[in-house]
Amino acid sequence: LVYPYDFRLTEKEKTSICYLSFPDSYSGGLGDTQFSFRLRQSGGQRTTHYEDDGEYNREAPLTLQREAAHYFGYVYFRQVKDSSMKRGYFQKSLVLVSRLPYVNLFQSLLQLIAPEYFDKLEPCLEAVCNEIDQWPPPVPGQTLNLPVMGVVIQVRIPSRVDKPGSSPVKQFNQENLLPAPLVLPSIHELDLFRCFQPVLIHIQMLWELMLLGEPIVVMAPSPTVSSEMVLSLTSCLAPLRYCCDYRPYFTIHDSEFKEYTTRTQAPPNIVVGVTNPFFIKTLQHWPHVLRVGELKMSGDLPKQVKVKKLAKLKTLDTKPG
C-alpha cells in the first residue's frame, strides 16, 4: 500500500522498498524493530513538490541537504505470533519515505504512528497525512512545532551558520503548548558513542577510511545495528559531508547487487551495511570489512532450523572486529 496515492514510485523502486523493509537475516526476534535504508531513485528526474529546494539546500548544513537522486526509507517492523495468520506470525512494516536525512525525527514519528497503524490500518494513515500536510516547511535555523496524533513534536532545524559544538539556542515560543511538546534534542544525530562502542579502538582508522572514501562492508546481526553503524560512519566526518554512496541496509535483492558484487572491477566507493551471511562470501574481496556483534542464535529455535547449514557459512564463529 502506498499512501498518499499520488506519490509516484516506479515498479523497481516499489520492489526495492519491499525487500528493504524486512530484516533478511534469520531473526527469531519477536517484537518491534526500527532501522533505515537509502535507495537510489530509478527513472528520470521527477518534478519535486519542493520549489524551494534551492533555498533550503543553500541554508541547511551540507550533511542535511535534500537529496535529488536518493530516497531515505525509515522502517518500523513488527513481528509477533498470530495464530490467525497462515504463517503463524503477524509481520508488517510501515515505511516512511523522504528525501531528508532526519533519522531521529522520522523514527520518533514512526514510534507514534506505527503501533496505531497496525491496529487501525488505512484510516490512521489518512488522519496522520492530513496533519503532516499542515506542517510548516523545514526552515534552517527555525524551531518548529509539529502536531501529530495528539502530540506536538518540537524540533529545531539546524542551519549552516550554527557554530559547531555549541548547543542550539533555545527558542521559547510564547504560545503555551498543550500537551507539553515532545522535544527532540536533534533531528538527525545518533548517539555516536553508543553506536561506536564495539569498535572504539578502531575509530581513528575508520575515520580515515571514511575521509578517503574507501569501500567498507559492515556485517551486522540485524538491520538496526547495520543501519546505525553505517549512518554513524557517514556522520562522523561532520561538518564535512560524506560524498560517496552509502547504504545503511542492503539485501541480495537490491537492483545494485550485481554492480556492487562484481569481481571484474574494484569495489565501488561505498559504505554498505548487510546482515545476510551470504555476503561474507560474496564480498570477501572487499578491502575493508567491519563485523559488528556476534550472531547469537536465540535459544527458542524451532527444531527444524538446520544450524549445521549456518555453521558451514562460518557466521557463528566470526569474531567482531
Q: What can you see in these coordinates?
A:
There is one protein chain. The protein has 2 domains: 11-47 and 54-134, no CATH class; 192-316. The protein has helices at 11-20, 53-59, 103-120, 122-133, 192-196, 203-211, 223-235, 257-261, 278-282, 307-312, and strands spanning 31-40, 70-81, 89-98, 143-148, 151-156, 182-183, 216-219, 245-247, 270-274, 288-291. The chain has 10 helices and 10 strands. The strands form 3 sheets. Strands 8-9-7-10 form a 4-stranded parallel sheet, covered by helices on one side. A 3-stranded antiparallel sheet has the order 1-2-3. A 3-stranded mixed sheet has the order 4-5-6. It is globular, with a radius of gyration of 20 Å. The two termini are 40 Å apart. It is of the alpha/beta class and 321 residues long.
Compose a concise summary of this entry.
With 321 residues, the chain is α/β, with parallel strands linked by helices. Helix content is 28%, strand content 19%.
Key features of this structure:
three-stranded antiparallel sheet; DEN6B protein; alpha/beta; cDENN_dom; four-stranded parallel sheet; Tripartite_DENN; guanyl-nucleotide exchange factor activity; 321 residues; single chain; 2 domains; 10 strands; guanine-nucleotide releasing factor
